[in-house]
Amino acid sequence: MLSLEIHRRSGLADFVRARSDGGRGYHQCVPAGRIVIVDDGRLNRECLAAQLRAHEVETDEAWDLPSLFTQVDVGTPDVILLNFGTTDSAMLLQVSGDIDPKTKVVVYGLSMDRESEIVTAAEAGVAGLHLQSESFADLLEMVRTAGNGQALCSPEVSAVLMKRVYAFAAQTSPDSTTDSLTARENEILELLEQGLTNQQIATRLSVTLHTVKNHVHSVLKKLGVGSRSEAVVVYRAAKYANPDPTRP
């Protein structure tokens, strides 16, 4: 279960544990599945597609919304690789995230000089954030972990996301120190991230609506945020900065 001790300044080093070891599992096989690259730079797109096919990955290409829809009509992709430098990338990101719950989105072409784009992609719930300074091996690893239902980014990106987390905390309660979320509160937060209402959560967990409201109130208080949407942003940022060690 994800631990969110975001207000414990002394525990920040434990919280920000991005996967940054030299190997990062690059030699592990990329899972079977279909990838669609969305990139309006033809040379960039074709070279990336050729590299993926050389690794025996089924790969198709798109460069705008109509071509993406064409590829989706062929079959639902397992992973969408979106270059955030593509025209209308924010809109393409939203559409890609809404295609199918099983379709994972990995964003590449990000730069540390444009932190707002990193935050935007993380808030959208993507499965990987790839910087321009990172390698093709890094991208392959993000595709692999996306297939396993995990989120991955570099330590540099984790630092950007943690700044966002602390900004929310400082707005509401800059000096607070709270306990980490309980197992039930983590479960509630995961369901909030899925977009469920309080009533839907109550039905899913077989508890009363009053109980859910109490849990949501506790989650917001512990995270130091003022709304459900802000809590979801914190949760998504934390998925990158502190991946669940119980996952395979």
The low-confidence parts are 1-27, 173-179
> What's the CATH class of the largest domain, please?
Alpha Beta
Helix content: 40-55%
- CATH topology of the largest domain, by name, is Rossmann fold
Helix/strand class? alpha/beta
> What is the 3D form?
globular
* Main β-sheet, spatial strand arrangement: 2-1-3-4-5-6
Mean pLDDT: 78
How many distinct helices? Answer: 11
CATH superfamily of the largest domain: Response regulator
- Provide the gyration radius in Å: 19 Å
Strand content: 5-15%
The succession of helices and strands, N to C, reads HEHEHEHEHEHEHHHHH
Whole-number tally of structural domains = 2
Number of E-state strands: 6
Please state the second-level CATH architecture of the largest domain.
3-Layer(aba) Sandwich
